[in-house]
Structure formats: C-alpha cells, structure tokens
Amino acid sequence: MSAVKRLFLNIVVCIGIVCNFFGVFSQAWITDYGGSIGIVPFYSTEVGWYALASWMMYISVACHLLVTILLTLVFRDVRRNGYCHYQRSQFFLIAFFSLMVTILTVTAVILIGVNLPNLNYNYNDNATLGYSAWVSVAAAVCYFIAAGLALSFAFLECRCC
Predict the structure, then answer these.
(1) Residue 105 pLDDT greater than 90, yes or no
(2) 121: burial class by Cβ within 10 Å (0-12, 13-18, 19+)?
(3) Which 8-state DSSP code applies to residue 156?
(4) Domain count, the chain
(5) Rounded to the nearest 10 degrees, what angle do helices 88-123 and 2-25 cross at?
(6) In the sheet that 35-37 helps form, which strands lie side by side, from edge to edge?
(7) Cα angle, residue 21 at apex, residues 51 and 147 outer, rounded to 5°
(8) What is the reported pTM?
(9) Per the UniProt record, which residue ranges are transmembrane (predicted)?
(10) Containing structural domain, residue 8
(11) Burial of 108 per CB tally in 10 Å (0-12, 13-18, 19+)
C-alpha cells in the first residue's frame, strides 16, 4: 500500500508541477476581446492588486520547486533505508510548502477575480479570468492533495525505527 501511495503522490506532484508552470508562464490570466495578458513578465507599472497576485504566483513557483526537491530527497532516502521517524519533519515540510502553493494560488486568483469588475468599469472593458488562472487552480488542487498525502506519510509511515 505504501508503494502505491508513494506513486500516487509522485504523480499528483508531477501534474501539479506541469499545471503550475503552465499556468504561471502562459499569457492568459486576463482575457478580453482584444487579447490576453499574463503575469509574466512583471511590469512595474501594473496596478497594485495585479502586481501582488503576480508576486504570489512567483512565490508559489518557488515553493513548488522546494516541494520537488524535498520529495526527491526523501523518496531517495526511503528507497535506500525505508521509512524512519527522522523523515517525519521532511514530510511535514513537503506538506507545508504544498499548502503554501495552494494558499498563494487561490489567494492570487481570488484577488484578480474580485478586482476585475472594477477594471472593467474603469476601462469600459469586458475582461474575464483566462485559462491560465484555472490551470493554476488545478495545480492548487493537486498540491492540496499532495499535502494530505505527505501528512499521511508523516503520521502513518514514519512512526517506526
């Protein structure tokens, strides 16, 4: 059962990596009839809420890189030595950074979504959230599942040795 759970965690994190990279670096966060804009590259002339959402997504990319590194290190150690109680803190860190990705992504999407009506009113536009935001939300769901699985490893698998 543990090997299946470990495989599922790796698959969920890989899907989350692809979705998060694609969501952050694609150019369709805000779309209207004239085109779309993304959060990369960062412009210093952006409105404050959009700049804050951009920084949240940049931090989420950094957190998911940390999840990937930690997951690689801990599962390499598990394959060599099996589960042990000293790996519990590493699984807690994986869960923490996975939850950070989830919280930052959801907050950034909500921040953009809440301020779009004001943007539409000020510029007489019909802008909506694009597919990049929804792909990032899918990544947040993957990382939420990964956090639960990491906590499961910490509490159930790492209690011996």
Answers:
(1) yes
(2) exposed
(3) I
(4) 1
(5) 30
(6) 35-37, 30-32, 128-129
(7) 95
(8) 0.89
(9) 7-30, 50-75, 91-114, 134-156
(10) 2-39+46-157
(11) buried
Condensed to tens digits (0 to 9), the pLDDT of residues 29-85 reads 888 887 888 887 777 677 888 889 999 999 999 999 999 999 999 988 888 888 887
Of residues 30 and 136, more confidence is placed in 136
CB 152 within 8 A of CB 160: no
Both tokens of residue 96?
A: 């923490």
Which regions of the chain does DSSP assign to beta strands (E)? 30-32, 35-37, 128-129
Q: CATH no. for residue 23?
A: 1.20.140.150
Cβ contacts of 8 within 8 Å, gap of 6 or more: 149
Contact predicate 73/152, CB 8 Å: no
What span, in angstroms and rounded, lies between the C-alpha atoms of 98 and 16?
Answer: 10
Strands (DSSP E) contained in 1-150 are 30-32, 35-37, 128-129
Token digits of residue 161? 């040795």
8 Å CB contact between 39 and 23? no
Q: At what angle do helices 131-152 and 88-123 cross, to 10 degrees?
A: 160
Q: Which of 39, 7, 12 is nearest to 95 (CA)?
A: 12
What are 89's two structure tokens? 């803190």
